[in-house]
Amino acid sequence: MDSSSSSSTAGLGAVDPQLQHFIEVETQKQRFQQLVHQMTELCWEKCMDKPGPKLDSRAEACFVNCVERFIDTSQFILNRLEQTQKSKPVFSESLSD
After folding, report:
1. Which residue positions does the secretion signal occupy (predicted)?
2. What domains are defined for the chain?
């Protein structure tokens, strides 16, 4: 067994902090891309009657409103989830009692 494999098995639960940060950043990027895709699809279906060479003022106002409501709703849900997580005890803490 070489030194690299023995060091990786010594800390079974330990993950390289740089790698963990990279994974978190990439996961956030992926979530953001998914949100943009969902928002685009939702607002396109809601606001675009018939595609043309120019966006009329009604469709433009609809897109602006749709995007703003999507962002507001997403932010509300995230805040609610954070509140829920803060109010629940962490599983490892509840085991130590």
Report:
1. none
2. 20-86 (1.10.287.810)
